Amino acid sequence: MRLREKISVRGPDGRVESWSVVRHFGESGWYVELSDTRGRSWSGIDAGVFDAFRDLRQVPEAEGCLFLVAGARLDCWPTRMQSQMGGGNLVAAHLGPWKMVTGNLLTFILPSFQHKAFFHDVFSPAPASKVGTVEEQDAYRKQWIDRATRAS
After folding, report:
1. From 58, 79, 131, 132, which residue has the greatest number of CB atoms within 10 Å?
2. How confident is the model at residue 152 (pLDDT cuts 50, 70, 90)?
3. pTM for the model
4. What is the DSSP string of 71-136?
5. CB 147: neighbour CB atoms within 10 A?
6. What is the C-alpha separation between 77 and 5, in angstroms, rounded?
7. Which H or E run includes 40?
8. 75, 95 Cβ separation under 8 angstroms
9. Which pLDDT score is estimated for 70?
10. Per the structure, how many domains does the chain have?
11. Dihedral sign for Cα atoms in the order 92, 78, 49, 73
12. Alpha-carbon torsion 125, 128, 130, 133, what sign?
């Protein structure tokens, strides 16, 4: 099954455009295909949607485009379990340690809380203030892991 949807992308000129994205599972893994308003297209293939999306983002980002979706949020990436079992369709918001502890407690008390608060579809909308490039995402993740390992 092919899932087609529209996502918002801020172009180099600052205008927000609606681009088309298609995701589907095939023999080689997850395929993500992206088309802009000028007829250009990019594609990525990987074991998960998140990683296939990361692969195709690099060329448009080098041209100054910014993807306004959860998969481009600095603080979001799939957990290992989501990648292995869910195809990386969901990304988790990796918040500060105290917010994570509070979230875990609330999840224990109210199981439905976790999905609504911490997990987002890769292509769900995200504000420009929370997103970045693949390079910025990698740097944020490294800092987050370093901070988390120092705290333990």
Report:
1. 131
2. low
3. 0.81
4. GGBTTEE--HHHHHHHTT-EEEE---HHHHHHHHHHHHH-HHHHHHHHEEETTSB--GGGB--HHH
5. 11
6. 20
7. none
8. yes
9. 93
10. 1
11. positive
12. positive
Place of tokens 């992308």: 9
Q: Name the residue type at position 23.
A: R
pLDDT digits (tens, 9 = 90+) for 33-69: 999 999 999 999 999 899 999 999 999 999 999 999 9
**Which DSSP symbol is given to 145?**
H
* Amino acid (one-letter) located at 18: S
CA quadruple 138, 51, 7, 135: dihedral, nearest 10: 20
Residue type at position 85: M
Q: How far apart are CA 69 and CA 49, in angstroms?
A: 13
119-121: strand order across its sheet = 76-77, 90-93, 119-121
User: Domain range holding 93?
Assistant: 3-151
